[in-house]
Amino acid sequence: MNKSELIETVAAQKGLSYKKAEEIVNTIFDAMTDAMIQGDRIEIRGFGSFVVNDYKAYTGRNPKTGESIAVKPKKLPFFKVGKELKERVDKD
């Protein structure tokens, strides 16, 4: 499922226009993004949690040339699936 399919599903299930459902989905995604930018953890019970992991700088290697390169520190979002969702997906 992609974002437009999610918007269509929300619109159909709640009897909303596509435009209104799009506003709702975008508002949720924007709020989640803003929270992660601020370093907050997002937890949705039964679904999972989103956190931002900090990675330190390190010396990497260019696989094509074998040359050593400096990799800058970075922050990346990480999703950890919740127990309930894991069990529902693996229910076969």
From TrEMBL:
Coiled-coil annotation: which residues? none
* Highest taxon in the source lineage: Bacteria
Going by the UniProt record, its keywords in alphabetical order are:
DNA-binding
Instruction: Quote the InterPro entries the UniProt record gives.
Output: Hist_DNA-bd, IHF-like_DNA-bd_dom_sf
Give the record's GO CC terms.
cytosol
Tagged with keyword Cell cycle = no
A GO MF annotation of the entry reads: structural constituent of chromatin
Key word Transmembrane present in the record? no
What does the similarity note say? Belongs to the bacterial histone-like protein family.
- Any idea what this protein is called? Integration host factor subunit beta
